[in-house]
Design goal:
The protein has helices at about 20-30, 40-50, 70-80, 105-130, 155-170, 205-220, 240-245, and strands spanning about 10-15, 35-40, 55-60, 85-90, 135-140, 180-185, 190, 205, 220-225. The protein is of the alpha/beta class.
Length: about 250
């Protein structure tokens, strides 16, 4: 259960190697007692974060491409954690810049990981939170979900579907005591974006983590990081020719 000040004491991160999720845990480490990190390379992740947190840490195997394992992983994590006060779904794969040369198999893989895999993980977590009667699920979407650029088309289109699912899942949880908070970061300097040219309003993981923690405290349903990106939906009404020029930059 959350502590007397409403702060989480246990957390589960699906996509446990995410720079953004780990930065959020850094901000919450003072109150966290147990942290579960789920990733495909669980053993390597355990070594990488061994001394990062004061909380007790355990890793769990998670493969976004195999939804048959998701519920079992969440159940095992919940049993070890006691209750899941905070769950963060933050795994993703940006892939290589999109072009007409991108293979259909690569498009299918990116959409499967970033949409189907993420949505299935959220569903597994949401069922657990609803059963225990409390908890917050932080779903990392992206500002790219609002209107894809050519270079990130498979990733952005997958995030658009995932964003819609996460918002709907929050409605599904109404009355259970659990909720979903959707986070829409812009370009963030992390290992996933290393080597890419920064986009306008580029930020870092620490700033995104601050926005997430602020959103948790204020009970927000959607968090934009940084905040000015909340104007991004206006891009949907830009004429196609203008958006095409902007998105190629």
């Amino acid at each position: 259960m959350n502590d007397a000040f409403g702060r989480p004491q246990t957390a589960l991160v699906v996509g446990g190697g995410s720079d953004l999720a780990l930065a959020v845990l850094d901000r919450l480490d003072v109150t966290l007692v147990r942290v579960g990190l789920a990733a495909r390379s669980a053993d390597a992740l355990a070594s990488a974060v061994a001394d990062r947190f004061t909380a007790e840490v355990r890793t769990f195997h998670f493969d976004a491409a195999d939804p048959t394992e998701h519920a079992t992983m969440v159940d095992e994590a919940a049993e070890w954690l006691g209750d899941i006060d905070l769950a963060i779904v933050a795994h993703g794969d940006l892939g290589q810049p999109f072009s007409l040369e991108t293979t259909p198999e690569e498009v299918a893989r990116l959409i499967s990981v970033n949409h189907a895999g993420a949505a299935a993980a959220c569903q597994a977590v949401a069922r657990c939170l609803a059963a225990q009667g409390h908890g917050t699920l932080v779903a990392f979407s992206s500002v790219a979900a609002m209107r894809p650029r050519l270079g990130n088309l498979p990733y952005a289109s997958a995030k658009a579907g995932f964003d819609a699912f996460a918002l709907g899942l929050d409605h599904a949880l109404a009355g259970t005591g659990a909720r979903v908070m959707v986070v829409r970061p812009g370009f963030v300097h992390t290992k996933m974006t290393a080597g890419l040219a920064p986009q306008p309003l580029a930020t870092d993981a620490a700033a995104v983590a601050d926005a997430v923690v602020d959103g948790l405290v204020k009970g927000k349903s959607v968090v934009w990081a940084p905040a000015p990106l909340a104007l991004t939906p206006a891009l949907r009404i830009l004429p196609k020719a203008l958006w095409r020029r902007l998105s190629e930059r």
